[in-house]
Amino acid sequence: MSPGRDGAFEEHFFPAPDGLMLYARDYRPGNSLGARRVPIVCLAGLSRNSRDFHPLASMLVASEDASRRVIALDYRGRGRSAWDENNANYNLTIECNDVLTAMAALGIGRAAFIGTSRGGLILHLLAATRPEVIAAVVLNDIGPVIEAEGLREIACYLGRSENPRTWDDAASILRRTHGTSFPALADGDWHEMAQAIYAEREGRIVADFDPAISTQLQALDLSGPLPDLWLQFDAFRTMPVMAIRGEHSRLLSAETLEAMAKRHPDLRRFVARGQGHAPLLHRPDVYAPLLDFLRDA
């Protein structure tokens, strides 16, 4: 364990069952009441990492009436976790087991979870196999039906070989790629996103994930409908669930969100206006209803 940036979080490295080293950020509340609340575990998207959640985690631990411990994980092959020599291990089942390993390593028996994109898919599996560890769930722009159009879009931009020369260049690349879907974002948001997505290695700014993950996605057959996870989604019925959809999302359709609400009558729904896949959760319009949901978890 070691202190993170500005002491805002602790850093943990721990081995997966196969020995691969994994990484997590651990944000601790500043009061004893927050320490007694159920912690929040944040799970990022396909190629993303724990840095995505830094603004949100910082706000949650500082909340006057809902402060609590927040954990943000790097899956294998992302961020500060080690890359896996066996590319086949970049799959939902192993990553779900890695989440359970992280919980055990950090002494967490039960948690509220925030799952963005792939993180939400992992939560579908976790709910179906280990429902007792879940106190509440936030699905950020993901559901049991994944639109092939959205996956094709992700495969396209992950497969591009644009290498930014500077951090300003990195922010500009992100804005050119995603700006149409995210008209709500300002300059600061794009620079913040660049710091989360890219890392500086050997004097170069590079995407912070194993390229094999992108190669694996591009090998998928996206010409037809993808297998759905409705059976696994039904495991959420006994749990408090909030589903957030980006207004311009191509991965989670409005129709799927409506169907989710019919199968889970107590589902809380929220549409993040001016955002696509996947919404930034720390923006004020999204954070307020999210915090309201988490207060009860």
Question: Mind explaining what this structure looks like?
Answer:
The chain has one domain: Rossmann fold, CATH 3.40.50.1820. Helix 3 crosses helix 4. The chain has helices spanning 32-36, 54-62, 92-105, 118-129, 148-158, 167-178, 187-197, 211-218, 230-233, 254-263, 284-295; strands spanning 2-3, 10-15, 21-27, 40-43, 70-74, 111-116, 134-140, 198-201, 204-207, 241-246, 268-272. Strands 1-2-3-5-4-6-7-10-11 form a nine-stranded mixed sheet, with helices on both faces. The chain has a two-stranded antiparallel sheet with strand order 8-9. The protein has eleven helices and eleven strands. The chain is globular. The longest helix is centred in the N-terminal third of the chain and has 14 residues, at 92-105. The protein is an alpha/beta fold and 297 residues long. It is 36% helix and 19% strand. Strand 6, helix 4 (118-129) and strand 7 form a beta-alpha-beta unit.
